[in-house]
From TrEMBL:
GO cellular component terms, semicolon-separated: extracellular space
Primary site of residence: secreted
Protein name as catalogued: Thyroglobulin type-1 domain-containing protein
Disulfide-bonded cysteines: C172-C179
Keyword Zinc-finger: no
UniProt subcellular location: Secreted
Source organism of the structure: Homalodisca liturata
Record-annotated Thyroglobulin type-1 domain positions: 135-202
Length: 351
């Protein structure tokens, strides 16, 4: 079990450091779990420089780098701080630290939804640049869970993904019956959306606004409205084009416009907007005064997973033209087994 082995290896290193401290008396008869708890508290306090019971990025940065280089399995070492940061605030509180390292880490899979309303493998958006070399998306996280289940046969939450590696809006932990809405880019749960044995209405949830570097929020909103007007005009002026959209019955007008323009820009029809395709579009909008400044920032803003290409999902998301949910396949399947005595049993006995 990779994660359990990782915790064991890391706590062993902490214990070795602890035993080398002056005035520490090693008691071999003491229960190992009690020793580990004291060691973990000592290590947390030694990292918590300002004593606020919270490890900030600056406080755990050196430990994270050391863990990545020295502790195996490497896959767990790379995700160490993300897994321990249960509420995804980029800090690790003492309860999170003790839960993450003081218990079998598999328990986090069962408690993550109820404990903080976050996915077990949700991505910390703030760490993306620092963790570019180990970039994680939904497909990667899903495969990691499936690999883990193959080795230990435990029931775990399995992320549901879009084909381009983002998270489905609705996520469900099937064995518990709970479903909730998530941010499609990071996989982080949207607070207050968790429901049991039901399908949450994720389309009614207003997505969190992401900052566009170099384009303040008020200017970004004005730019996006002007850009949608520009795309509408572009589509209307080329009605005779053979570029078409499919499945428009359940889509908004904004999504149809955004999708039409995406297909028109996707010259090689590989379902991604790549660098060469973006150049012509950026040149086009640079001639419009209202679009020029923020338009230069648009490719990076839309490329949420930093793979240097923009999928249709990313395009719709950054233009605020998301596809509505019509698929109920993510709903947990009710248990078909009947509870209680068999009503035919007495009838059969009489026969």
């Amino acid at each position: 079990m990779d994660k359990s082995q990782f915790v064991t290896n890391l706590v062993k290193i902490f214990r070795s450091e602890y035993n080398r401290q002056p005035h520490v008396v090693v008691n071999d008869s003491e229960d190992s779990s009690e020793t580990d708890r004291r060691v973990l508290e000592w290590k947390f306090n030694s990292l918590d420089e300002n004593g606020d019971m919270m490890l900030t990025k600056n406080e755990y940065w050196a430990l994270r780098e050391l863990v990545r280089k020295s502790v195996k399995p490497k896959r767990c070492a790379r995700a160490f701080t993300r897994i321990c940061d249960l509420n995804r605030d980029t800090n690790i509180a003492k309860p999170e630290w003790m839960t993450c390292l003081g218990l079998d880490i598999n328990l986090l899979q069962e408690s993550a939804v109820s404990l903080a309303g976050h996915l077990p493998y949700g991505e910390d958006v703030g760490d993306r640049k620092e963790e570019a070399e180990v970039s994680s998306d939904c497909l990667t996280d899903r495969q990691a869970v499936l690999d883990e289940m193959r080795t230990n046969n435990n029931e775990m939450y399995i992320p549901e993904c879009t084909p381009d590696g983002r998270y489905q809006k609705v996520q469900c932990y099937r064995s518990t019956g709970y479903c909730w809405c998530v941010n499609e880019d990071s996989g982080n749960t949207i607070p207050g959306t968790s429901v049991k044995d039901n399908h949450p209405k994720c389309d009614s949830v207003q997505p969190l606004s992401r900052p566009m570097k170099g384009c303040p929020e008020h200017r970004k909103q004005t730019f996006l409205r002007a850009l949608m007007d520009f795309l509408t005009h572009t589509m209307a002026s080329q009605k005779s084009s053979n570029v078409t959209t499919k499945d428009t019955q359940n889509t908004s007008q904004e999504e149809q416009i955004a999708t039409w323009n995406f297909n028109a820009l996707d010259i090689n029809k590989n379902k991604f907007l790549e660098k060469n395709e973006w150049k012509s579009f950026r040149s086009l909008i640079s001639t419009h005064r209202k679009l020029r400044r923020c338009g230069k920032k648009l490719p990076r803003y839309c490329d949420v997973n930093h793979d240097h290409k923009i999928s249709l999902t990313e395009w719709l998301h950054c233009l605020n033209a998301q596809r509505p949910i019509t698929d109920s396949s993510a709903m947990p399947t009710p248990n078909p087994r009947r509870v209680g005595p068999n009503p035919l049993e007495s009838y059969l006995k009489d026969k």
